[in-house]
């Protein structure tokens, strides 16, 4: 019987507050929805007051939910329910047929799957693209609101591709379309489509949306066209769409349905609870004020007021004038300068969708003010719309914007060496060397530090931008917002507001964060002092004094902000026109009469020249002129492709690799084999084509990639943060399945051919190696057995190894035939490589004969895919420059070694060799292509940069992903060409230098007096390992500074694309060295190196690079490894050290098992920790003692188990939660935000598998490599011995654990292997590899179905063996309840917490049902 008459549900979302009051029959009596502009308390108070006025003083049972509700619930003493449970409850009540619910909120997007009794939720983690606030941002771009977008979208005709990955980037896609005249109707519908694509690819992550679908949340409730776009994309019929009238209130209704009987208040009490101020216990860190007082502020203003351009009155001016137009992405700027550089006229205006109309308005104004005898004698355009302006007004010159900015900056400070330009949505850092643009960095992947970021935020608080900025100047306690996605900052801001932070504090915090984002995240300087000595800042954002001041404080410099900071591009363009003018020059620019009569119209068309189908914008002007943009090559302009016939090896290589004719069907005696045109096939297709054709198979190759192919496979992509080349693989496989081939062959190549004898290794990258595993575990047709899928793990080191593997794979074929086919295939592969090398040499000869320049466009083999490179090679050839591939010149030089990196990936070894060749030639330059999300490039881009800039070459890196906005690439390439031109004119000489580094050895002498510092990873183990190492005669110190601050230090010293563990490790080390505690001439560093294929083997390189940056190169770095990767005479791994460390690690594992098992249930609080501390002392004494008795060790292990087993505990049941994942994030409390403590606080028990198991995994890998990949049998024998030794060492502990009442013994490594084999191949050996999957299955077998899979954001192996196997694990083990959590300096902790809590709520539910 329900005794609750009235229930009140409160849902506090990221942007709105919703309430619902239900009666005992669950009828909705009152509901409302209101934006809170971050003022939650008052908004909720207003809503409750309204319901009080409408319904009177009811006696209600309240319940709170929502992302912003937890702290408020604690304050009001009202229970809190996890949002997804609230939503699930209301769906069960109101729409029981629901299979999938898609919910979009202000900053979060979720998909909830209902399968039987299991509820599974996917939620956005690191990026908030494609949510409600994203739609608001886009709407303001079209000068409307979300409802306006919806109205426009009803009338759309065609859709454009827009990135929903990042709100600010979508702007970069939309802006050119607006400028090119796309209609608001089409743009609005395209924005909604982008949200749909982001939600499906970013959240569904390999789990298809099928069955009855419910659409929830504000955006989907109020925006009918957004919902329509989902229905259209998911191909839903009316039967499968669940329509509800209150879909935006579902969480509120659900929380009312979950109300507790024992908590009840009158409405009056609820209102009075909210009337007082709320003091929350959250702590957001604060920063120092921008100005200490008025005096400091006045000095700052005076200094900046002095940087003024000389103005002159146009009406009184006599002489020649020069015009500059800067057509930016959102604004148009115009400047007119006189002969002495004085500014006669300036103009700055929003484009309002038509840059041409805006420019015409300004030109008419100039001519109306122009005195009779003043003539505009030369004109120049720059910026995004440079070519359009030049074509429309027939201007004399066009110049790339970076050069225009440099001219303007040099006018204010001739010695400028750095220009920082922060505009509305773009950010540029231009470095100047020898009076030329040396390098340009633009924000290519994230725009969280741009001006529109502040503007959007000010609007969300109902503030005008100017007032918001002024408020910041004297804020007493600015909040520290860190560097993260714009949208996620809001959750930090909300926390701070709950603590009573004022708008001033928030505004100042924003100003700091804009600069921090710009410097550390986008421009990726590790230390602001690297920017330069003479810095000029410009762009509209720097008109904001708070931003300028925070820049000066963070960069510790005095910058120059010209008074015309907003129109520097136009001013620079005008100065260029002035410089290029000669006496007898006649301008081509239109006269005022022609401008007055200029008519133009804009239309869109698709180029049919090739499969790219570029979308062209055609601007037609009066007089029959036209200007076409949007094309990747000249065909769109009606010309032939590559008219000047300069060589393009991307085109050549594509043809050479893939233009083989398959056998006719009647000759293919053995049927057909499908091969996907992806990843390693761009390296090895000639081999596989020849191999299968020789065996009489018809080889069906999937077609060239395009966006349609990508969309074919979007449903099965398991991880949103992997690179685009990997995501494309799903579409190619789907295409082959539709073609009904007999089987698909897509091998996993662990080792590539060894092209470079001196390299440390010849791995493939973890994604290239293992991606076929992701296909196997996530493509449903393969899972259902509808198609045969072969993906053997192989090594391409030599013919014998390949033959052995293929005979094993194709047992049904005669071995002799396979052997012969492999021989031919190997020869064909060698021939194709040779052809490409010969072609490279031919192109070099052509360049010499014709005095042409060339660019090595260096990337991976698959970057020759036009869908991946977006036509960049054609863009380069259009400037009459030859394009070479990295492997067409990599045979012509070798890098001098040792390199600072561990050179272990074959594709990357080619990059180093190509760069080493380029540095020797004046007519060659190198541009590196880098796929967004490529983890390895954190290592390689720095190394290629070192090789080139070390010999005074200019290094350019282009980041590319699924969005083909060539704007940024064009700017970078033109800046490079312009710098090369200037260098040539000045006749500058370069010095060619070696790329080798001096490694400092740790000598026998150092051993006596040096302190060796070691970064913390697992406190429970490392406090025992420290004395063990010290007992071996070293002065060994484990650092204790593994905290948030060390991550900030890490960000300053490591490439920011590097993974989170490397930031933690380097951060701890550098913080310790900078602390003054250690004598820098008597300190060494130690780090482990496994020699595996992920980035961890390169941490040692990251450390050396950090030391170099900090001028501490004298400090030796010791590599602790078992593979002989690096050796040091003063540090030996011997039997004594092995045994001591082994004992310490096993004790640590034992403590971890016992403490985590007993602590959640202890009757006497603190009793487990007390016993743990008592034993730690005994163990430390033992491992550092002179004599190590194996007998005593076993006795101690048994006693520890018995002592813990006897602790008094309660008999309550709690969910058990396994923690697996990347080794550092799994064990380090700082790395996983104290996950064990969090789980225990939330009423769960943490189960963490042993650390020593990782060593067993490394040993087992050697055995597998010897058996399957042709590696040494000797190391396999050593590995078997290692496994036997470890199992013997922990034998006593294991048998005692087995006998105990409360504990379980660790699994044997062979059991873990057999478990993992069900799901993944044992060939997955990068990072935690198959072991991670094996551990998850081991946990499930031992009754721990709830698992947190921890991983650094963008961890390459985890895309495959972590996130990539979750779907398949669920298929095998329907009760498994796994959540994958990304850890990263920019990850939102609130978001992590919500996702862990959801997993726990499912765990609790399953516990009560069992």
Give an overview in words.
The chain has 1410 residues and is an alpha/beta fold. It has 53 helices and 40 strands. It has a five-stranded mixed beta sheet with strand order 3-2-1-4-10. Helix 3 packs across helix 10 and helix 4 runs parallel beside helix 6. The radius of gyration is 33 Å and the shape is globular. About 0% of the residues have low confidence.
Largest sheet, in brief, is: 5 strands, mixed
- In percent terms, what proportion of residues is strand? 15-25%
Strand order of the largest sheet: 3-2-1-4-10
User: Which overall shape is indicated by the principal axes computed on the Cα atoms?
Assistant: globular
Average the pLDDT over all residues and give the rounded result: 89
**Distance N to C terminus:** 25 Å
- Stretches where pLDDT is under 50 for at least 5 consecutive residues are 635-639
Number of strands: 40
The helix content, as a percent range, equals: 40-55%
Radius of gyration: 33 Å
Structural class assignment: alpha/beta
Total of DSSP H or I helical runs spanning 4+ residues: 53
């Amino acid at each position: 019987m329900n005794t609750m008459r009235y229930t009140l549900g409160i849902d506090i979302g990221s942007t709105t507050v919703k309430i619902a009051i239900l009666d005992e029959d669950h009828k909705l009596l009152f509901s409302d929805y209101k934006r809170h502009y971050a003022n939650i308390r008052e908004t909720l108070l207003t809503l409750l007051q309204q319901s009080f006025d409408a319904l009177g003083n009811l006696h209600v049972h309240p319940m709170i939910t929502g992302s912003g509700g937890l702290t408020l619930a604690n304050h009001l003493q009202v229970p809190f329910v996890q949002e997804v449970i609230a939503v699930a409850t209301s769906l069960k009540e109101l729409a029981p047929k629901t299979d999938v619910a898609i919910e979009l909120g202000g900053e979060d997007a979720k998909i909830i799957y209902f399968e039987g009794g299991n509820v599974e939720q996917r939620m956005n983690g690191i990026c908030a693209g494609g949510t409600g606030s994203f739609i608001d941002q886009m709407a303001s771009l079209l000068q409307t609101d979300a409802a306006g977008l919806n109205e426009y979208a009803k009338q759309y005709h065609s859709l454009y591709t827009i990135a929903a990955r990042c709100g600010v980037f979508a702007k970069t896609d939309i802006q050119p379309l607006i400028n090119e005249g796309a209609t608001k109707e089409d743009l609005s519908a395209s924005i909604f489509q982008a949200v749909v694509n982001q939600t499906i690819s970013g959240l569904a992550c390999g789990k298809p949306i099928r069955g009855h679908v419910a659409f929830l949340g504000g955006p989907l409730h109020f925006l009918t066209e957004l919902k329509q776009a989902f229905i259209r994309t998911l191909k839903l019929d009316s039967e499968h769409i669940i329509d509800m009238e209150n879909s935006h209130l579902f969480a509120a209704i659900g929380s009312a349905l979950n109300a507790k009987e024992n908590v009840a208040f009158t409405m009056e009490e609820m209102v009075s609870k909210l009337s007082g101020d709320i003091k929350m216990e959250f702590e957001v860190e604060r920063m120092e004020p921008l100005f200490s007082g008025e005096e400091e502020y006045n000095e700052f203003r005076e200094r900046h007021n002095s940087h003024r351009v000389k103005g002159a009155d146009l009406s009184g001016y006599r002489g020649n004038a020069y015009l500059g137009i800067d057509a930016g992405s959102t604004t148009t700027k115009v400047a007119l300068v006189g002969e002495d550089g004085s500014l006669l006229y300036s103009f700055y205006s929003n484009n309002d969708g038509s840059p041409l109309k805006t420019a015409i308005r300004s030109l008419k104004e100039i001519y109306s003010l122009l005195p009779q005898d003043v003539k505009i004698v030369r004109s120049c355009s720059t910026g995004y719309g440079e070519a359009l302006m030049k074509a429309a007004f027939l201007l004399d010159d066009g110049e790339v914007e970076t050069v225009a900015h440099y001219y303007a900056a040099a006018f204010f400070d001739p010695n400028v060496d750095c220009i920082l330009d922060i505009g509305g949505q773009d950010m540029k850092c231009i470095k100047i060397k020898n009076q030329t643009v040396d390098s340009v960095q633009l924000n290519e992947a994230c725009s969280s530090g741009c001006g529109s970021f502040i503007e959007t935020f000010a609007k969300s608080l109902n503030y005008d931008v100017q007032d918001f900025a002024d408020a910041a100047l004297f804020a007493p306690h600015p909040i520290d917002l860190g560097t993260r996605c714009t949208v996620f900052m809001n959750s930090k801001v909300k926390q701070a507001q709950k603590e009573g932070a004022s708008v001033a504090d928030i505004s100042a915090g924003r100003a700091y964060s804009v600069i921090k984002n710009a410097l550390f995240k986008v421009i990726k300087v590790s230390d602001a002092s690297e920017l330069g000595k003479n810095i000029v800042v410009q762009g509209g954002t720097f008109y904001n004094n708070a931003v300028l001041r925070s820049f000066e404080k963070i960069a510790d410099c005095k910058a120059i902000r010209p008074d015309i900071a907003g129109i520097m591009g136009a001013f620079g363009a005008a100065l260029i026109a002035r410089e290029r003018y000669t006496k007898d020059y006649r301008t081509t620019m239109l006269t005022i009469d022609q401008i007055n009569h200029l008519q133009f119209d804009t239309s869109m068309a698709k180029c049919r020249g090739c499969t790219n189908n570029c979308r062209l914008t055609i601007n037609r002007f009066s007089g029959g002129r036209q200007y076409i943009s949007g094309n990747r090559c000249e065909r769109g302009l009606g010309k032939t492709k590559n008219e000047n016939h300069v060589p393009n090896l991307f085109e050549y290589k594509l043809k050479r690799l893939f233009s083989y004719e398959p056998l006719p069907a009647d000759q293919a005696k053995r049927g057909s084999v499908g091969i996907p045109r992806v990843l390693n096939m761009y390296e090895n297709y000639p081999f596989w084509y020849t191999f299968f054709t020789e065996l009489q198979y018809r080889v069906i190759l999937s077609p060239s990639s395009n966006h349609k192919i990508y969309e074919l496979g979007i449903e099965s992509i398991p991880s949103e943060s992997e690179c685009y080349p990997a995501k494309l693989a799903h579409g190619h496989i789907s295409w082959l399945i539709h073609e009904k081939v007999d089987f698909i062959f897509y091998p996993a190549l662990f080792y590539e051919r060894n092209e470079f004898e001196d390299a440390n290794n010849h791995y493939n990258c973890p994604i290239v190696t293992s991606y076929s595993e992701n296909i196997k575990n996530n493509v449903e047709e393969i899972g259902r057995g509808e198609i045969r899928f072969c993906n053997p793990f192989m090594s391409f080191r030599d013919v014998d190894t390949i033959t052995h593997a293929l005979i094993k794979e194709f047992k049904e074929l005669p071995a002799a035939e396979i052997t012969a086919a492999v021989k031919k295939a190997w020869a064909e592969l060698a021939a194709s490589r040779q052809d490409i090398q010969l072609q490279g040499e031919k192109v070099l000869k052509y360049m010499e004969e014709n005095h042409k320049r060339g660019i090595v466009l260096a990337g991976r083999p698959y970057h020759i895919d036009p869908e991946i490179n977006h036509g960049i090679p054609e863009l380069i050839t259009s400037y009459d420059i030859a394009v070479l591939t990295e492997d067409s010149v990599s045979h012509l030089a070798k890098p001098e070694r040792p390199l600072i990196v561990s050179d272990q990936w074959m594709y990357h070894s080619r990059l180093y060799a190509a760069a080493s060749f380029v540095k020797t030639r004046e007519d060659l330059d190198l541009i590196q292509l880098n796929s967004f999300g490529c983890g390895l490039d954190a290592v390689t881009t720095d190394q290629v940069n070192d090789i080139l800039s070390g010999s005074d070459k200019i290094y350019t890196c282009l980041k590319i992903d699924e969005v083909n906005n060539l704007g940024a690439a064009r700017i970078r390439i033109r800046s490079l060409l312009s710098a090369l031109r200037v260098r040539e004119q000045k006749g500058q000489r370069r010095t060619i230098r070696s790329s080798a580094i001096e490694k400092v050895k740790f000598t026998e002498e150092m051993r006596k007096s040096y302190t060796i510092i070691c970064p913390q990873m697992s406190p429970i183990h490392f406090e025992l390992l420290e004395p063990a190492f010290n007992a071996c005669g070293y002065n060994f110190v484990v650092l204790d500074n593994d905290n948030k601050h060390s991550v900030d230090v890490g960000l300053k010293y490591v490439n920011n694309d590097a993974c989170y563990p490397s930031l933690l490790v380097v951060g701890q080390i550098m913080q310790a060295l900078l602390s003054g505690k250690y004598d820098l001439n008597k300190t060494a560093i130690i780090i482990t190196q496994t020699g595996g294929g992920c980035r961890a083997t390169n941490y040692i390189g990251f450390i050396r690079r950090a030391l170099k940056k900090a001028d501490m190169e004298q400090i030796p770095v010791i590599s602790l490894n078992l593979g002989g990767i690096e050796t040091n005479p003063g540090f030996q791994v011997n039997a004594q050290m092995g045994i001591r460390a082994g004992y310490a690690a096993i004790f640590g594992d034992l403590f971890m098992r016992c403490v985590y098992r007993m602590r959640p249930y202890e009757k006497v609080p603190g009793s487990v920790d007390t016993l743990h501390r008592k034993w730690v002392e005994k163990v430390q004494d033992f491992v550092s003692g002179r004599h190590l008795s194996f007998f005593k060790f076993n006795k101690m292990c048994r006693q520890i188990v018995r002592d813990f087993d006897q602790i008094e505990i309660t008999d309550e049941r709690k969910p058990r939660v396994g923690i697996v994942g990347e080794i550092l994030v799994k064990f380090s409390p700082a790395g996983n935000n104290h996950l064990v403590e969090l789980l225990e606080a939330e009423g769960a028990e943490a189960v963490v598998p042993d650390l020593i198991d990782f060593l067993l995994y490394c040993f087992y890998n050697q055995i597998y490599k010897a058996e399957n990949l042709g590696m040494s049998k000797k190391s396999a024998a050593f590995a078997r011995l290692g496994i036997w030794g470890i199992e013997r060492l922990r034998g006593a502990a294991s048998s005692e654990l087995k006998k105990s009442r409360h504990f379980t013994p660790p699994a044997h490594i062979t059991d873990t292997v057999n478990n993992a084999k069900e799901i993944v191949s044992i060939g997955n050996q990068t990072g935690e590899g198959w072991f991670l999957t094996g551990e998850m299955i081991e946990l499930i077998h031992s009754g721990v179905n709830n698992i947190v899979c921890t991983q650094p954001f963008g961890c390459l192996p985890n895309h495959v063996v972590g996130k990539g196997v979750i779907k398949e694990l669920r298929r095998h083990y329907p009760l498994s309840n796994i959540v994958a959590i990304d850890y990263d300096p920019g990850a939102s902790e609130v978001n992590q917490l919500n996702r862990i809590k959801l997993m726990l709520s499912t765990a609790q539910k399953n516990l009560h049902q069992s």
